[in-house]
Queue: 4 jobs
Job 1
Amino acid sequence: MNLRQLRYVVATADHGTMTSAAAALYVAQPALSRAVRELERELGVELFARSGRGVVLTPVGEQVVHHARIALAAVEAIEALAVTRPDGRGAELRVATTAALEAELTGRLLPRFARDQPAVRVRVVRCGGREALTSVVRTGRAEVALTDLPVPSDLAVHPLEHRELVLVSPPGLKVREPLAPAALDGMRLVLPARGGPHRAGLDALLARIGVTPVPAVETDDQDSWLEQVRQGAGSLLWYRGRLEDTQGLVVRSFTPPLSRTIGLVHAHRRLPPVVRDFLAFAKEDARERRGEGRVREHL
């Protein structure tokens, strides 16, 4: 038994799938699965049972994870006694987020930061919602969080990206202009697959404005979304800056605008150097992305 195996087991319990746990820990999923199986063989017990597309702890698995958390917390407390060197060795960065935004971290931001700061150990703390996320930040279980804004005023806020939602439709779609959000009620839409992080964010927005569109196509294959619109399956509700080739289609804004602002938040306390470095890195990354978006708009 080793600490790596214990970390993998705890991460799998927290994320519900080995794939998500591996992404949060920046390891290959087969390596994580192999380590968990090795621990099960060593202990002679089954820690996880299959449940739908994920896994759940067995009764003995719950006991193992309970003791593993205690052991890992003790190790982290010991590691925290070490003085962080100027080059960042020994530092740890814990970033909280929700399932809807986890891909933002694991897909681009954290891998790039990890390449720039290879000595820093990065951990993702996944939260069930914004209320849980703000609690994690307030109590110090994560130094910083990526979330939708606004958040309660007792947290420090660093906006990163303002995203406008637009409607992409075939030329023949007849709708009133200017386009009101209420027009989405009953409209046929090409939507992300149910259960995925992209769909959760859109469903929350649609519920907030009180509309119920008709799912025409439901898929996470983003490369096919615009083609589905071209074929007349339905319209697409998506972020303006994330659309590639809309030639031959009609892109409409909403009045009032439908938008989403994403940012980093943290408690009002003195930040460790690694957190300040991450904030600066994230802001620079956001500026680069805005620049890339402006270039695409002029092509």
Job 2
Amino acid sequence: MSVVVRVAEITEETPSIRTLRLVRLDGNSFTPGVYKAGAHVDVTGPTGIVRQYSLCSPPGDPSSLLIAVKREPESRGGSVALHQLTVGDHLKLSKPRNLLQLAEDGDRHVLVAGGIGITPLLSMAYELYSWGAEFELHYFARSRDEAAFVDLLENRVEFPDRVHWHFGVAPADLPAVLQGLGAALTSDGHVYTCGPAPFMAQVTTALAPVVGEEHVHVEHFVPVEVDTRGDEPFTVELDTGESFEVPADRSILSVLEENGIEVFKSCEEGICGSCVSGVLQGTPDHRDNCLSAADKAAGKEMALCVSRALTDRLVIELY
């Protein structure tokens, strides 16, 4: 399912980051509760390229949706095209999906953003504030000039005292700073992080010993590099009874599509989560960057575009 929206407002946050405020074409509000904090959407731009962007507006405000786009120097046209949009242009959005979600049972929440990783965490901060929850938002960036939403977070949100800035932290000093964020946390606390992969890995290393690995929630937008040498064929069976052989060099997704089975998909790199389906029998070999550590350990879901099987047979349920 997708919807066409209009760009109602553009804000140049930094020389390389702009925010796009999106509204419905008919002028009405979006359906209340259309997305939960931490959700992202597939955005189809003018070039037809599809990219994933987090929704960073308050989830309780259905009047518009907000995304932030960083222009990547090695972009294949996706982010560059969105930086050429003007007010009034149209975009196509998918239905919002949540791979990063708030834990309602946490006694304290620490949000740790690296650079453009602030986007999903901003919507989560809005939601936590609306709950009256205990939380902190820590924003790491190279400099104040390279950080998005500075004016918003300092002057236009109701929780500026919950925002902590970390500009220009040297790589050698980062582990100690991150460990310091765990001082007020217990095993009942939760940590949420988004940013460059090495940054998120350091957040996990510093804070997982305090809250437990399953209480560290990570948002990835880059594929996992996997050594496919030694892959073996296996059988995948649908809950309808249809069965297919998956060769060593093919994905479950491609085999299903070849046989006329429709599967919702987008990135095909194990990032967006659109092809995640249920696992009824067998053990998946997770190779995605969308499911959480807890989801992977449970073995009840898998990303069909990249993940394989550790057993000779998988029985799956398409969502």
Job 3
Amino acid sequence: MNNTKRIFTVAITGASGAVYGIRVVQQLLKADCRVHLLISEAGWEVFRLEMELDTSDRQACLNGLFGDYDEKDLLIHGLRDFTAPIASGSYKTEAMIIVPCSMGTLSKISNGNSGSLLERAADVILKERRRLVIVPRETPLNGIHLENLVRAERAGAHIVPAMPGFYHLPKSMDDLINFVAGKVLDSVHVEHTLFARWGEKR
């Protein structure tokens, strides 16, 4: 196993916009990173309902999304697997990205409720002072949502809302998805060419 790879954790929850998480994982693998992937049960449901994916065979679904990936570079963990490396601060992940992040997941993280591996991994990232990127996908936001976002940010999280820009003149849904995924990758300093930056030729 190549120990020089950059290591990330990515969590996909049940908020709308699972496609953002999929695109981020695809790009991390393309950048030769190692990814620990967590998908909540609600996240799998979003795959089925929002993306019309066949999730009856979850492994086949992942193969379809991420191609012929090396199992050493994409590690899938169940949410009850507290023996996973990412449950411990001694395991050197560079950052964790929750994309999209539901308001329920945000609430648990911002209040230190580590009831699953997802929340435990996020808690580990925060306590070790590493980069936690939260990509909330909800609208409108109520006061509780806003307070939880502030609590998470004050604890060290980086908030990257799923708000696509339009200055790059998107021509398709894919352009909008790539913009958000690209901003997420920017937040963890992973190079990509998903969108034209301001001042670049389109």
Job 4
Amino acid sequence: MSKVLYVHAKGGPPVGYALTRVAARAAVHLLALSELPGTVAADAARLCASVVRPDATGERDLVELITDRARAVGADAVVTFSEYAVVAVAEASRRLGLPGAGEACALARDKRLMRSVWDRHGIEQPRFRAVATAAELRSATEELSLPLLLKAAWSAGSTAHQVIESTEQAPGAWERSRAVMAASAQLGYAELHVADAGEDFIVEEIVSGSAGDWFDGPGWGDYVSVEGVVVDGVFKPVCLSGRMPTVAPFTERAGITPAALGDAAQERVVALARRAVEALGLDTCGTHTEIKLGAGGRMWVIETAARFGGAMTVPQIEEVFGLDLVGLFTDQLLGRRPLWPDRTLTPHEAKGAAGSFVVLAVDGAGAPWTRRHRWDSCAVVRSAPVSAGGTLSVVAESSLPDGTPVPVYDPAAGANTMAALCLLSADAPQTVVHDFTALVDALPAILPAAGAEEVTA
């Protein structure tokens, strides 16, 4: 039986979901760089041939750790679905002579390198500058058109995003973003292969989106993601996922599969995603490419990644299109020639729709809740305003334990202040958007109060 070394770290699709699908195709040896969720640990012991948790205090090189473990278990492939481990796994696979993203993987991780490649290829994107000091950030505010968005070059989940509206705001934004990256690293949400990655940033102009020019129904956000895969250097787009509007500054609240775009609009989006992915020169990996939608048909590439989309994007695709991306990718790495879609799937081919919802302590306008509340998954599932035929569930491994106070939303910390992740199945994409919009308004009434404490920033 084939053997796979599964490198687990935070981020990506739920490990409980991904692990079962890899284990269905090979003997799995788990290298857990992050602690497994309590809801998954027992299943991991049952599903895996071995489970190793390295000493967190060690100073050993991560690529060396992965390659040595792969050799020890005789791995035929090494896989990760985490943003924070993808570069190390790509390099380890290269050293082992196994399929992987290849030497170009860092181009799909470090936003500075990514944007520079796209700039050389003339690919539409917001104007940007790489910044490594407060002085460089101040200079960038004088060179680019305000307002600007400061973001960490190696971050994920909208962590450390800061909107800068004047040159005078630059020093404070710089210190705040660096502090958030340091705090995120303590939580395990940080690049694992590159030392001091939390010190690298880019700042970019904020382009104006216009969801109304692209979607017929209300409630959609002004960007989409193209989910796909690169196989031996050939990009294969699978489908598109849409979003609800972000919470300021740009924290994702919900993702919906499929995105309800017309065929012509989808083709244009996929064409831009193809240019962006192919410019990076990736070898074999999942891809997740985000594209901003503007007025009059304008588009800009925001970023891409050499891995599948996080949260519940992959399970959503399996539910509505019947495609097990994790299983197909595992087969690809093992040389089994899986059948990827020969074209981008459309909403007409979807069986209903599915969406994932991030519980944040803000209302529909992005304003903080006026009172603290405690997370209660049973109350949410029981009382959520779901349309007829819809089903709402809570992703336990991505949610706080019941009774935990919902964190006060911190714009700079982004998804780090989420309380839970929910999954909704419905008859159509617009139904998912409608129900999630209603859920945002209903949550303060559904969740029990955490005493009489008022919210403080």
